[in-house]
Protein 1
Amino acid sequence: MKNIFNPLYSEEILNRIDKLNSNAKQQWGKMSVAQMLAHCSFFQDIAMGNSFPARDWLGRLIGGFVKPIFYNDKPLAQNMSTIPTILIVEEKEFETEKKKLKQKIITFQNNGPEKCTIHPHPFFGKLTTEQWGKGIYKHLDHHLKQFGV
């Protein structure tokens, strides 16, 4: 499984983000491309330890049992539910969100696993830094595929 902490894979993700344009249409889901970038940016904040959404009851109940879907080799399901606090419904500006996300990915990769959050994922619970690295790559890959890149 690819890991965002590997410079080769973070560069791949950054190059794919550069292929997006403001008119890109989603192949599933409801978010626009700018909303998707903002969503991914907010998710980076969680992994970087800058945001701490509370765990909900369902995550506490089953999150630990299903957490391998976050970091295993299988693609994430289309139209999978998301953490309510990072569900983006307001309009966003494409170029601003693109720059913000790219900078967060670069910072996360440069900081390395030792600066990854130790706070639990809001649904899956406690993750190792390797699981976060794989999960971040998988999450970004999922949303980039959503927009055809």
Protein 2
Amino acid sequence: MTNSMDKIRRLPCWKGAVDPQPLGGGITNHNYVVEDQSGKYVVRFGEDIPVHHVMRFNELAASHAAFEAGISPEVVFNSQGILVMRFIEGICFDEVAVRQQHNLERILPLLKRVHRELPNYFRGPALVFWVFHVIRDYVATLRRAKHQPHGAGELGWLLEMAAELETAVGQIDLVFGHNDLLAANFMDDGKRLWLIDWDYAGYNSPLFDLGGLVSNSGLGSDSENWLLEQYFEQPVTDELYRKYAAMKCASLLRETLWSMVSEVHSDIDFDFRQYTRDNLVKFKQQLLAFQKVSK
């Protein structure tokens, strides 16, 4: 951490001396708040993370595009492994906030803008985030690891379930997805919502963002049905719901495997082992629900 803070202090973008302060909450990057004579900024410090398919050139391009689309704060400087953005005075949502109907009514149009408008501003090479490829690659990474994380004994079965879910999803529409819709990535400044953290951005099915939003914040069935009908602007057919339910399962499986890999490879101070346990339970519960609607 000291080395990171020294690097931040030496960045040429500051006006005057700065004293970086750690910013909690991140479980992929080390984040800091920096204030200089011109204002207040957030600094995200992290190199490429190939085991998680995080490539910083892609995060940078998505962050620029999200700013141009009016979705995310401005990037004012970047260097290798460092991203400096304007600080937003606001509150990050938690799961309870996401579940409130009036907030869902604000989140939905923001998500549609990500999917439909952000590609108009994205420049340069773009990644594809296909969750089933990510799952297969995570399993291969875990099988090569010397240290086996919680749940590693179930990798074969998890891979079989992923194959069944991929078949159930079938053909998809393609949009530009955020692909990491944790509650804390929504910020409310009192006037509007912002969506932050574009580490996993890339082209994907809209079903993945919808399923991740629902599963990450524990939305109830009424809210889930409202979200789907409003997103697709029509009643949801049984076929579409099965495809969506399969993708929601896949989003939980990916989060579980992400945590397993992080147990082995991450240096972030976070209880990944417990996070793995929690998400594995959620995945198994959702898998049972999916199997019921698929009969």
